[in-house]
Amino acid sequence: MLSELRKTRNQQRTERRRQALLDAAGKVFTRQGFHRTLVSDIVAEAHVGQGTFYRYFPDKRAIFEALLDRFLANVFEAFAGMTANPPQDQDEYREASIVAIRQATEILDRDRDLALLLLREAPTVDSELEDKVSSVYSALVTIARSFLDRAIKEGFARPCNTE
What we know:
The chain is 80% helix and 0% strand. By secondary structure, it is mostly helical.
């Protein structure tokens, strides 16, 4: 039976390998695009065998989607602070908005090539990923609308049609 420490270390090692594969896939997809990338390209970049790849992902599409999910989670995380601690006045609203937008912009700028690749090519992979990208845009609109609706309700933004 494995000790809790051993289980924790195994889980950490597994997650590090998974993240390393995602990092390698991001580099290869950015360089070659989704459709021209092979699993063998990703494992060569990651310096692992194909068997290791298939322990973590069933196919190229799955790692592409995982890469998209990781990227989007980072972007949406930029708005978490504003959601968890809603601004209480106009100055807080302005400052929280600036911080959230700056954080999201920094993520997009830092990984610009990856962002462009993911948002441009995901809809070309299949209809499921096309729907996912579309829902991301809708979610961003919903976040912006909810922040603006709250600001209007609290009186620190002028009334307007947020639709």
